[in-house]
Amino acid sequence: MTAGPLAYTTRPVADEQDRAACFQVRKEVFVGEQNVPEEIEYDAHDADALHVIAVAADGTALGTGRLLHGPAAASHTGGDPAVGSLGRLAVSKEARGLGVGAALVRAIEDAARSHGLTAVDLHAQTHALRFYARLGYEPYGPEFMDAGIPHRAMRRTI
Predict the structure, then answer these.
(1) C-beta of residue 4 within 8 angstroms of C-beta of residue 95
(2) How far is residue 141 CA from its own chain's centroid?
(3) Do 154 and 107 touch, CB atoms closer than 8 A?
(4) H or E element in which residue 125 lies
């Protein structure tokens, strides 16, 4: 919970209403703002991923992210079963700069620990490299394109 102008909590998605709110934030950010084609924004991993949500005191969804683990994460992590994959991190425009993104990353890391994982990988849009670096993630490998947006792989031991 935060203090100050916007109180919010982060937690695992509890039901279909939460899930729909997560998908709406992703649609606003990735499809609406970044022009990611909707047909590639949602994928088969959404069904089994652990989703987290940041919710304002009034119930408004402020952000979301997901954790892939086990076989679902293998293609994102080089096949290491002890590494999870953080992805689809999105924060609504009105909640940016308030710590929501960092809180979501920490909630995903907590979920990864609870699943026995020892590290988390992610594919960061290059404009977000400093954000993730401040949270302890280190880039590796070359820049690559995903949905027409430049990315770098990053990893943090948890």
Answers:
(1) no
(2) 20
(3) no
(4) strand 119-125
CA distances from 91 to 7, 94, 140 (A): 15, 8, 25
Biggest CA pair distance of the chain: 42
Kindly report, residue by residue over 40-71, the tens digit of the pLDDT: 999 999 999 999 999 999 999 999 999 999 88
**Are 91 and 101 a contacting pair, CB within 8 Å?**
yes
**Per-residue tokens: 103:** 């809180």
Retrieve residue 85's tokens: 């994959």
pTM above 0.90, yes or no: yes
Distance of alpha carbon 50 from alpha carbon 130, whole angstroms: 25
Whether 11 contacts 107, CB under 8 Å: yes
Identify the CA nearest to 89 among candidates 69, 107, 116: 107
Matching residue, tokens 């952000």:
63
Q: Are 125 and 150 in contact (CB under 8 A)?
A: yes
What's the rounded Cα separation, in Å, for the pair 143 and 15?
36
